[in-house]
Write a structure and sequence with these properties.
By secondary structure, the protein is α/β, with parallel strands linked by helices. Helices cover 39% and strands 19% of the residues.
C-alpha cells in the first residue's frame, strides 16, 4: 500500500501533472486523476483546445479556473496561482513546471518530441504513445537516465501489463517461455479508416461521447496495433518473436497453452523466451497480458498440475497466467509510481524487435504513403532480421515516397521508398541506431 500512503500524504498538496492528448485514452486518465488524492492534472494539451476544455468540464473542473495559453510564463504563473491550463502546444505542456508528463497523443513524431522536451526539462514521463516507444523508446530511456528522471510505460495499456506479468513470473522463479497479449484481429480484408469505426463495432453513443480516431481503430483490426504493442513489450523484456514471426493463433483459453509451447512438447514454438499473441475465440475473454511459464522442479510440476484453478500442460510443466483487462484509468498507477518512487512500470531499453511496414494494396512509384492505419500495415520480426533486409521501421514510412512498385503484402524496404529525413522522429532513430 506504499503508493496509496504516498498519495494520501500529498492529499493537501497534490503533485502537478501535465497530460498531452485528450482523446479516448487521455480523457479517462484525466477523469481518474481528478478523483485521486495526491495528484492533480494542471495542464492539458491538445491541438484541438475544445477537447481539452471539454475534458476538464467533464472531470468537474470549474471553467472559470481554466486558463488558455501557449505562453510558457503564463503556464507557470497559472499553475502557481492554483489554476488549470489548456494549451495547444504539446512542447509547452511537456516543459511546464510539473512532476510528471503523460504523453497520450498516439502519434509517434509528436510523442517523441514531447517526451524528449519533458525529459530535457527534468520532468518524469509516462508514455502511453507506444508507437514512439516501439521506434525510439531505447533512446528516450537512455536520455531520461542521463537526465536523472524516470521514463515509463503506462500501466493502463497492454505492453505494461505484459511486462508486469513477466516481472512477476521471473520474481517467482518461473522461466517465461512466451509472453504476449490478445487482440481483435481481422487481418483481411484490409479496410480503410472510412469504415473502421463501423467494422470495429463501436456504438453511435460511444463515438459521439469519445470522438475516436478512425485511423487508430483501423490499426486495431489490420494487425498493426498488436505488432507495435508486442514490439514495445518485447523490447522492454529483451524478447524477440519466434522464428518466422509471432503465431497469434485464433484459439480459446485452453488452446493457448496447447499451441504456444515448444514443438518438442506438442506446440508450435521453435524457441523459448519469445513474444507472441492470441486472437481469442468468442468464448475466451481477450487477455490484456499473459505469460506461459515453465517449472523445472518435478515437485512444482506436480503442484501446478494438482491446482484446480491453474491451466497447465505436459503434466504441469507449462502454466498459463493472464490478466484479462487493461483500463486507461490504471495509468494513474504509473503516474504515482514515477512521481513518488521514481519507479517505472516498464521501460523499453533495447531494440530486440522491430515493426516493419507492408503494403495493403499494390503501391506505385510516385505515391506518398500516409502511414499506419492507411495503405500500409505493420508486422513484427526480430530487429536483426529487419536490419539485415533493409526493412524500414513502420513509423518512419509516414510521408515516404514510393520509388519502385510494391506488391500487396510485400515488406517495404529502403530500396522501395524515399523516407522523409527531415523529421524529429527520423533524427532520433538515426541517433539511436548509432548509440544505443
Amino acid at each position: 500500500m506504499h503508493l496509496q500512503a504516498s498519495l494520501d500524504e500529498h492529499a493537501e498538496d497534490p503533485l502537478p501533472v501535465a497530460l498531452i492528448g485528450t482523446g479516448v485514452f487521455g480523457m479517462h486518465v484525466v477523469y481518474q486523476l481528478e478523483e485521486m488524492p495526491g495528484l492533480t492534472p494542471v495542464v492539458l494539451a491538445d491541438i484541438e483546445s475544445s477537447k481539452a476544455e471539454t475534458t476538464y468540464r467533464r472531470a468537474g473542473v470549474d471553467s472559470d479556473a481554466v486558463v488558455k495559453t501557449n505562453d510558457p510564463d503564463d503556464v507557470a504563473a497559472a499553475i502557481e496561482a492554483g489554476e488549470r491550463v489548456v494549451t495547444t502546444d504539446g512542447v509547452v505542456a511537456a516543459e511546464a513546471p510539473v512532476e510528471v508528463v503523460v504523453e497520450v497523443t498516439g502519434v509517434p513524431g509528436p510523442a517523441a518530441r514531447h517526451a524528449w522536451a519533458a525529459i530535457a526539462a527534468g520532468n518524469d514521463v509516462v508514455n502511453v504513445s507506444v508507437e514512439a516507444d516501439a521506434t525510439v523508446g531505447p533512446l528516450l530511456a537512455q536520455f531520461a537516465s542521463e537526465k536523472g528522471v524516470t521514463y515509463s510505460m503506462a500501466y493502463g495499456d497492454e505492453p505494461a501489463s505484459v511486462v508486469s506479468l513477466v516481472d512477476w513470473a521471473r520474481s517467482a522463479g518461473l522461466e517465461v517461455v512466451v509472453a504476449g497479449q490478445g487482440t481483435e484481429l481481422t487481418f483481411k480484408p484490409h479496410g480503410t479508416p472510412d469504415d473502421a469505426l463501423e467494422r470495429y463495432g463501436l456504438t453511435e453513443s460511444f463515438i459521439e461521447d469519445n470522438d475516436p480516431d478512425p485511423r487508430m481503430y483501423n490499426t486495431f483490426q489490420d494487425g498493426t496495433k498488436i505488432a507495435v504493442e508486442l514490439c514495445a513489450a518485447a523490447n522492454a523484456i529483451g524478447f524477440e518473436p519466434d522464428t518466422g514471426g509471432p503465431h497469434i493463433p485464433k484459439t480459446d483459453r485452453e488452446g493457448v497453452l496447447k499451441t504456444l509451447r515448444p514443438k518438442e512438447d506438442g506446440g508450435v514454438l521453435e524457441e523459448k523466451g519469445v513474444i507472441d499473441g492470441v486472437t481469442p475465440t468468442d468464448d475466451f475473454r481477450n487477455p490484456s497480458g499473459f505469460v506461459i511459464t515453465e517449472a523445472k522442479n518435478d515437485e512444482m510440476k506436480r503442484y501446478f498440475e494438482q491446482r484446480f484453478n491453474i491451466h497447465t500442460e505436459n503434466d504441469g510443466k507449462y502454466q498459463f497466467f493472464d490478466r484479462p483487462y487493461h483500463l486507461p484509468p490504471e495509468t494513474t498507477v504509473s503516474v504515482a509510481s514515477v512521481a513518488f518512487n521514481d519507479a517505472p512500470t516498464g521501460t523499453v531499453r533495447t531494440q530486440t524487435s522491430e515493426v516493419v511496414g507492408r503494403a495493403k494494396r499494390d503501391l506505385k512509384p510516385g505515391e506518398v504513403i500516409e502511414g499506419p492505419g492507411g495503405e500500409i500495415y505493420g508486422t513484427l520480426e526480430s530487429a536483426e532480421k529487419a536490419a539485415e533486409d533493409g526493412a524500414v521501421p513502420l513509423e518512419l514510412l509516414a510521408g515516404a515516397e514510393v520509388t519502385r512498385p510494391i506488391g500487396t503484402d510485400e515488406r517495404i524496404t529502403e530500396a522501395d521508398v524515399d523516407v522523409k529525413t527531415n523529421t524529429f522522429l527520423y533524427h532520433l532513430r538515426q541517433v539511436q541506431d548509432e548509440v544505443v
